[in-house]
Amino acid sequence: MTTAKELTQKPIATLSLRQWITGALESTRSVDGGSVTGSSSRMLSPDYLESSLRIALLLSEQICKAEELSKFGLVDKLDALPLADTDWADCVRVHLGGNTDAPVRLHSVCPEKDLYSLEIQPYAPNVISDDSTSATNGDPNDEMHSFLDFFGFGADVETLHDGISPATHTAQGLGYFNIISSEIVAVENDNPFLSTSDSNRSKERVQRIHNLGLVFYELFSGEQWRPCSKAGSPLQIETALLIADEDDGPRERDPFAGINTNSRKRHACQASRQQVVPVQQVSVEYLSFKGIPSSLSYLISNMIDSINGDLSRDEAYTNIFHVASDIRLMIEKPCTYLQDLDLEKLSLTGLELNEALFGREEEYASLELAYKGCMVSGSAEIALISGESGIGKSSLAKRLGRAITVNGGLFLSGKFQKHKSKPFAALASAFDEYCQVLVRKRDSDWASAVISQLQMVLCNDSYHLIEIIPTLSQILVYTDTTSSNENSVNAQNRLNHLMCEFVETICSYSAIVVTLFLDDVQWADMASISVLCQVLKRSRSFAGGFFFIGCCRDDEMQNDHPFWNMIDTVRSFGVTELTVKLDCMDKETLNRMLSELLCLPPRLVRSLSEIVFQKTKGNPLFFTQLLLSLNKDGLLHLSLTRRRWVWNEEKILARRLPDDVALFFTNSIQKLPDDAQLALFTLSCFGGSVECEIIEELEKNLGVQLIGPLKIAKEECLVNKIDKIFHFCHDRIQESAYSTIEVGERHFHHAKYGHALVVTALKSRNDSMLFAAVGQIILGGHSAVSNDEQRVTIAQYTLAAGKRAIVMSDFTSALSFFTSGISFLPHNHWNDNYELSLELFELAARCSLATGDMDGLSVLSDKVINHAKCFEDKLDTSFTVMSAFAYSSKVAKSVEMGLMIVLKLGVDIPKLSHEETVKRIRSTQKVLTISDADLLNYRLMSDSRQLMAMKFLAKLQNAVHQIKPGLQPIIAISMVELTIASGLSPMSPIGFACFGGLVAKLNDIRGGYRFAKLAKALVDKLESNEVSGEVTWLSTEIISFVEPLQTSNELRVQGAAVAMAAGDVHWACWNRMSTAINLLWTGANLSQAKETCSKAISFMEEQGHRTTLYYVRSSQKSILSLIGDTSGSIPDDVLAKGVVENKNPRQLMILFYQKMFLSFILDRDDMKVYAEKFFENRLMTWFLMSNQAFQLFISGLVSFRLYRVTHDPVWAERGARSKSNLQLWATEGSSWNFEHKFFLLQAEEFYCNKRFDEASVTYSKAISSASAHKFINDEALARELAGKFYLETGNLQTSLEHFTVAHEKYQQWGAYAKADLLFTRIQEKFSSALC
């Protein structure tokens, strides 16, 4: 398309508007192949209509500007406008470009100033002569190649058009607005249309509206308006214009007679004492017949007829501003304000509501900005939309969702509901929708990749997620791995982990940010909140970002609502939050909304909108429902003759309407037939939505009609049916339907519906129906139960529902089912219904532990302990209580209780001396003559008491580590002995792994290695997935003394993964901790170690595991100090304070060890202080662990250095003990891991003993061994220590060589701060030699 600037350089011609109309119509007809003859032909083309509307808008806006300037005195008089009796159409000029290659086009030249140019092609106009300006070349500085103006416009054009300077008609070119002000003749004050009185000013405005209407009539119809119709014309209403003279009386006059259309002079008014009195109105039908849209026809008619003064107040135009506004709406939103309504369709459907956004532009913009910010940063963000019911929260979120979807993003949505007992229903709805897409597109590369990744990350545990997201079963291979005795805490953690893996996979395969929208979070269940919290905490690491939108009724959420607690938690993890508060719409917004809904200009609907606003107070839901009601009752209806919506204000005002939306819905429901009201109430009892199969089952079992009546409600827009599910159109409708039955009667209906469903649900194993049925029975309450037999039956139903909830890892819902079942039990239930009572209480106690309800656990466990008939019946609950003590940091009580229980089970854990303990370990090792192959195929333990004893011993093994480490060996030995005596149990691998640690600690490295490998094999053999993470960590600690340290991290990574898959957060954290710490000592690049530490810390913070968190933070401090990046580490005092608060002596020992290491490696003066504190706080253990090797190595080097400084033999003895241990591990265990460490300690010892020749040789051995075994960190350290040795013994050249290589190795390791420090020391020591 030719640009505006190019067109300005071509010849320009000027036409009168009348000439432009004729030429443009001829052009469009010739293009369409039509005829120009016959003024009645329907000839408006889209191009002509669009261009004409632009012309009409520019004309009306110019008059508006002139009136505005006149009001403020910027224009003395309105003599710039044509006179009342002037043919206005002849006073309008159209300036055209010379291009003849394109059809009629409208180009935006300066959109921000609403300036447009009109290019008419292929019609080549004749140049107007005489008073008109000739065609000339355009001004090269003028970007507008054609424009409209009023000739003789006397106002300051620069003021009128925001600084655009006017140009004159000259031979050189045309300006923006060609004003020849020198030819204007001032109008005298006797002009009645220029009077200063308010009355006459109003008449002036009306006259201008009328005259401009005549111009529009000709502009859009192609004909001049005449006072009388021609014979045979389709004009049905003749029009005459009478001009009355005060002296001579009325006489007919042609308003166009005697007007010189080419004149540039303004004439003084010749009718100063005349009055225009029209007698008939313009025919809208004739304009519509000409192809003019009805809205535009009415606009023209009302403008011309406005001089009558007999139109209604709202429809009459009183100023040009309203005309301009209406035309602008037709241009900007033609589908709404210009195009004719589909009368045939609307006569059948009635008023149709759209989903346009009104009055929420600012809120929507903030949401959109937050989403885009999430896209840019790739991080996680939360947006909370709050407000009262019906305020438009969901609509706002869904509006963003549509925009996200259109742009290729992923928008998943779910909704929490009242009375919904199905676990994770909202999350399941959102994620199941995504899985359905995977099913449909499973053959595509994208879907195949997603499915493969899900299969890999979910592994064998996908079954637990399939229980919640059923469609996953269609794309994943799975097996049922549910265990009835599974640790409830681990099960909850496992589900959280699986959900995080699922969402992370979705994010990683989505090109744009994944958005999760959950509605009505004020009704969110605790289990869903727990999952959501974990997903949001982990979402910081999701690829591509994660955007969560939640909507809530803030008036129904107290400050202590669990959702707010969740927000506080994730906020502390760096997840940003946006809160959007919605209020009711104001009057102007509601008027604009009504205007677009009825396709009428805002001025025409204002009276109706004021009535509606008074009733609804601007609540969007109330507003839309009220309009639908008015339409249904005929108070707002479609007029076929006027082709628009009309209403009866008097009847609407007279109608008694409720002032509350809930009452409004209640009234609407009560107008329905009785069976429809009952069907809606039945539906409302189940929440906001119900599966059709449940309604059908109720209909069958209760013998009542429900589906048919619900269709009636659907016709009334109260419910919808989508994908075999009935939904209320809004929560308020559900609440209103529920309120139609008296409160005292509702419980009977709930109970009736529940009992009608529950038997079928149990037989068909339909979980959704089971949860719904039992939920209804519980809502029915005790008043709906008539005898003890029914109470027992209901308790059995709740037990079944609770067990299914446990399978889904929803322990919150399960606890609710169990406690409800307990409440229904008869008075003497412990005697009459013992087994049922025991199971309900035991499972309720287990769920209380999972949900953190320790008070509830205490009450439930006391009941079991007091009423159980035998010791064995107390064991499950006792184990739950013991676990609760351990989780709540009451470790001493946990150990005390555990020791008491195992003693009653026949396992004695005596307190032995060190010598006795060693003897017991060695004797047990001797009797273990069974081969590994035979142990792997050993019989299984079947005695329930012994199985429970193994569970208690395994739990004790963890607990005594903190407060009674001396008991660890005996507990491990007891587990091994019990296994050999009675068979393998799921806990046996823990016993063998711990026993392996004991054997290795007694210097039998290979013996311990054997039991460690056996423990790992037993996990696979017994499928002891629940203890897999623990066994992996324990066994890897021993394996690292035999196999290369660099490979041990692979085992720990696997251990963390299998632990999380089982929900074992504790051992997942221990495996990740060891992985991070191990990197520091194995020579991995420190940047990798830094990243691994950072991820481990984030994970531990997310899981709230403070013990391992502080171990990793201590190592992180050392890593960052070596790199020279201290920005990511916490200050020493803060770290120390946290360790002290944890009251963990091992953490304190590790803290001093890390400080000692940094002082040693960075040559600080406080090395001796921290070395003494380390040895003072060092704790001895019965198990051999990898960190002991690192500690002995560094503490040995420190000891030898301090001995050379202090000559205190204590330090020499400490160094020698470290050397001996490393020598043993190098010979009996792994020379790869320990040989170079032993050599370096031996070299330092030789140095201390002044055996310099032997020291020199041994330093070389240490360097070679470290290099060969890929320990670049230890190679750098050995080089540095050798350099110091040669420096102090006077061999400067060799010393410099070692220092130089050490500097290079430190840099390769990533220890830049250490390398820089060493370089400085080299310069200081060898400055003279270097010179």
From TrEMBL:
Residues 357-541 form the Orc1-like AAA ATPase domain. Signal peptide: none annotated. Pfam families: AAA_16. InterPro entries: AAA_16, Hybrid_Histidine_Kinase, P-loop_NTPase, TPR-like_helical_dom_sf. Coiled coil: none annotated. Gene3D superfamilies: P-loop containing nucleotide triphosphate hydrolases. This is Orc1-like AAA ATPase domain-containing protein.
